[in-house]
Amino acid sequence: MDFLGAFAVLDPAGTIALAERSLMVQAVFFMLIVAVPVYFLIFFFARWYRAGNTKAKYLPNWEHAKVDELIWWAIPFEIVLVLGALTWFSTHELDPRKPLATSHSPLVVQVIALEWKWLFIYPEEDIASVNYVRFPLNKPVQFKITADAPMNSFWIPELGGQIYAMTGMVTTLNLMANEEGRFVGMSANYSGVGFAQMRFVAEAVHQEKYDAWVEEVKTSSSTLRWGAYNTLATPSVANQPAQYGSVELGLFDSIIMKFIH
Q1: Which pLDDT belongs to residue 101?
Q2: How confident is the model at residue 5, as a pLDDT?
Q3: Cβ contacts of residue 147 below 8 Å, gap of 6+?
Q4: Per DSSP, what are the bridge partners of residue 77?
Q5: pTM for the full model?
Q6: What pairing do the DSSP bridges indicate for beta strands 242-244 and 152-155?
Q7: Going by DSSP bridges, is the β-strand pair 246-247/223-224 parallel, antiparallel, or unpaired?
Q8: Whether 159 contacts 14, CB under 8 Å
Q9: Vertex 221 angle, CA 244 and 139, to 5°
């Protein structure tokens, strides 16, 4: 999907994104219970109390209208209670750190936000990729996210909400794709001159295609060691996807620890 040509958050392709869209729709409908009558009454009052309508009564001397006050206080109050309860339960249900309820064990992907590109490390497969992440269809993916650059935000709109990437810290985001396809991933936090081009491709495929891709990447002669990583971490814009057939052990943890004194 072309993100610029559509509202990706309203076209979910994953479990979390579908639940988030449902939450947004419910919240909007509850708020329309107040908004629709208000807009109706605006036009009604404008027409009924116009200067030329002699049937409209002018009653300036009144202090209390108990029935009217009950309506315009009780209904919004009840809606606020419903929205508050909805927000409370959904906040806990959609906690990005909460593992997804599935019989499959999650695929762990370590994510590093650089200037201005994304590095993905697969610790179990011992491979890495730049500006491209692939994962199996209908299998939970646990993203472990940090930054080796200004604070950023990791977001795949069609699969779920964003979460921040910060130096010296690890944030967790659990997602799962229910549809096969290529999705646009991006930075959702302004981080400098290359922010607008800091995008990546997230592709969900069947398990067989994922396994074949892993084997293909492993044949690459490129190894992501500290020297290669330091070169990669140099600020650059609009990097083409790249792959590494092996990764230096403990690289992700070392990147985090260099900010901890």
Answers
A1: 86
A2: 41
A3: 112, 113, 114, 165, 166, 167
A4: none
A5: 0.86
A6: unpaired
A7: parallel
A8: yes
A9: 35
